[in-house]
Amino acid sequence: MTNELFHAAIWEKAWKEDAHITVKKMKSAGIDPAHSFDQKANTFNEEVFSEEGRRRAKRIMSWLEDQGVAFKEKSILDIGAASGGFSVPFAQRGANVTAVESSLPLVELMNENISGLTSGTVEIVPVPFEDIDIGAKGWEQAFDLVFVSMCPVLIDWESVEKVLSCAREFCYMSMSVGPGEHSLVDEVWPLITDRPRKTGHWEMGYLLHLLLLKGYAYQSLITREMKTKVVTRATAFEEAISMLKLFGLPADERIRSIVSEHLEKNYPADQVTIQQGGRFGKVLVRLQSQNMYSREEG
């Protein structure tokens, strides 16, 4: 066991073959990761640029600054940039951002969101990162910061190496840790089945352990983040069905009927309050100055 614990090749193989990682669960549920936000792009954009969404971006950027990351006149590769929730504030702080996003509805919204920028730049690359030839693009060690926030591009160690290869100083990666939490799913689960939920989304464990074994210097943070929102019954229904599919349940007529009846009975005013979130992991890899950073010394 000790040999396996400290054998990087074993961890690489385990991650690649793990059937419960996010992307594989999405695909098994019939969800295309590259276009999973196409139908809800407008709603997502509103959340990202809401007051709470802006506060979240500010918190993460402040954490990065606490580790020595600067933005002004820096080059940033934002992978899975969505509608620009981070690309826009990066540019507002004076950065030159290359934003990779494969969802065309989100790309259209990002174009709108960057139209009023008065500082920095944002260049949009509207293709999946997986399809980009890093060498042909001239992206090898080309960016001061590579930023990957909650994007399903990190599917195994090979994909991590591709991301890391673009970074010159820092590489930030974040992802879910363990199964997501959703209050409506909690309500309907015992009505549907008595079996325990399937766990998953442990990619952060693979990532941190392999970074350790391969000699990288990094800071990591695991937190539990929750948000409360009010949506219509129709929106709540679609969310619940989508999450139930990710937990391995079929979206058959019986389950759809149970969820629909629960919503009609318990939310007659067509306003469903949902608490959603879970644990999230962040890691910042230091590629140049690998010593502990202090703002006072910096």
TrEMBL record:
Domain Methyltransferase residues, every copy: 76-168
Listed GO MF terms: methyltransferase activity
Keywords tagged on the record: Methyltransferase, Transferase
EC number: 2.1.1.-
InterPro entries in alphabetical order: Methyltransf_25, SAM-dependent_MTases_sf
Keyword DNA-binding: no
GO BP terms: methylation
Pfam families in the record: Methyltransf_25
First-tier enzyme category under EC: transferase
Name of the protein: tRNA 5-carboxymethoxyuridine methyltransferase
Taxonomic source organism: Paenibacillus plantiphilus
The encoding gene: cmoM_3
